[in-house]
UniProtKB/TrEMBL annotation:
Record field: catalytic activity: 2-C-methyl-D-erythritol 4-phosphate + CTP + H(+) = 4-CDP-2-C-methyl-D-erythritol + diphosphate
Family according to the record: Belongs to the IspD/TarI cytidylyltransferase family. IspD subfamily.
Site positions for Positions MEP for the nucleophilic attack: 152, 208
Alphabetical list of HAMAP family matching this protein: IspD
Protein's recorded name: 2-C-methyl-D-erythritol 4-phosphate cytidylyltransferase
Role noted for this protein: Catalyzes the formation of 4-diphosphocytidyl-2-C-methyl-D-erythritol from CTP and 2-C-methyl-D-erythritol 4-phosphate (MEP).
Pathway noted in the entry: Isoprenoid biosynthesis; isopentenyl diphosphate biosynthesis via DXP pathway; isopentenyl diphosphate from 1-deoxy-D-xylulose 5-phosphate: step 2/6
Alphabetical keyword list: Isoprene biosynthesis, Nucleotidyltransferase, Transferase
Taxonomic source organism: Anabaenopsis arnoldii
Top enzyme category: transferase
Record-annotated site: Transition state stabilizer: 13, 20
GO molecular function: 2-C-methyl-D-erythritol 4-phosphate cytidylyltransferase activity
CDD domains linked: CDP-ME_synthetase
Length: 225
């Protein structure tokens, strides 16, 4: 299975001056934890790290330190996650039929979850890891007034890994580009193209390190492993 790791963001919500994936959690960069999980997942045979060239020296040193034995390619990132994944898809070897996409920022993913997504994508065209929403969610207008309370039974929090048939995902990205769609995950492109995306059970601990609070949470979760 080919794995693309979008890792080309700037981490605005983290508030730092450089890519948040180089921040340390339990004495290792965030991206190193993500790569360790990918390296340990037996189903993953090829890793593409989508990142800004300015970060390549740091990322290459991290890959070398981890002694990753699988092929690792560096792919230039874009100005949005969507554009970065688009670049990643163009860089996949022609032999790739399916692909998993996993955010570099979800550094707590387990090899088991990567393996189970790799297995499940053999049986469908698109899937995402997700967990049921625990809170009551409110839809609020621009004046701060609640409009509705959606039925929680139907609400799931999207995670990565997300897995897809490569040809279909390339077609959906091309369609998105033509139509000017802006989406925050790849499943949304499938949805807009009317292609089914299946949920696979995600992990409560598979949080995305987005804010300084998430860094503290990641530190705690890793300390328990
Ligand atoms: N141009 C971009 C933007 C984001 N990402 C990646 O997409 C994942 C999810 O994005 P997010 O957590 O939002 O990261 P940032 O864009 O860095 O954060 P922010 O939105 O706070 O700036 C991250 O692994 C990030 O590196 C990417 O590859 N290319
Ligand atoms: C793909 C994702 O991780 C699913 O939760 C997420 O959408 C990434 O972007 P976001 O803008 O931080 O939601």
């Amino acid at each position: 299975m080919h794995l693309l790791i979008p890792a080309a963001g700037t981490g605005k919500r983290m508030g730092g001056t450089r890519n948040k994936l180089l921040l340390q959690v339990r004495s290792q960069p965030i991206i190193a934890w993500t790569l360790k999980a990918a390296a340990a997942a037996s189903a993953i045979k090829w890793i593409g790290i989508i990142s800004q060239p300015v970060d390549w020296p740091d990322f290459k040193a991290i890959v070398a330190d981890l002694n990753v034995t699988k092929p690792v390619e560096f792919i230039p990132g874009g100005s949005s996650r969507q554009e970065s994944v688009y670049n990643g898809l163009q860089a996949l070897p022609d032999t790739a039929e399916h692909v998993l996409i996993h955010d570099g920022a979800r550094c707590l993913v387990t090899p088991d979850l990567l393996n189970s997504c790799a297995q499940a994508i053999q049986e469908c065209s698109g899937l995402i890891a997700a967990v049921p929403v625990k809170d009551t969610i409110k839809v609020v207008d621009k004046h701060g007034i609640i409009q509705t309370t959606p039925d929680r039974q139907q609400l799931w929090a999207a995670q990565t890994p997300q897995g897809f048939n490569v040809n279909l995902l390339k077609q959906c990205h091309a369609q998105g580009l033509r139509q000017g769609w802006e989406v925050t995950d790849d499943a949304a492109l499938f949805e807009r193209c009317g292609i089914e995306v299946r949920i696979v059970p995600g992990e409560e601990t598979n949080l995305k390190v987005t804010t300084p609070q998430d860094l503290a949470m990641a530190e705690f979760i890793l300390s328990q492993r």
